[in-house]
Amino acid sequence: MKKSDHKNISCEEALKRVFDYIDNHLEGSSKNEFEDHIEKCRHCFDRVEFEKLLKSRLRALKHKESSEGFRKRVDDIITKF
Ligand SMILES: [Zn+2]
Hints:
The chain is 75% helix and 0% strand. It is mainly alpha-helical.
């Protein structure tokens, strides 16, 4: 059996890693801890799903629409979340 040395992290800790996780920047125990957390925590799991959806929507939008004003608004929306 694989030795697991990752600890349980808090929601606060998990939420800090959401974007890195979606961008595949998490590795090793950081990733294990995060995946462990969202397996058990519905709230954080929903957050990940939401961010993934938002990201794919934005990517689709950016593809069609490239005006500076629009991009700025999208950035503002992201910052608020
Ligand atoms: Zn959580």
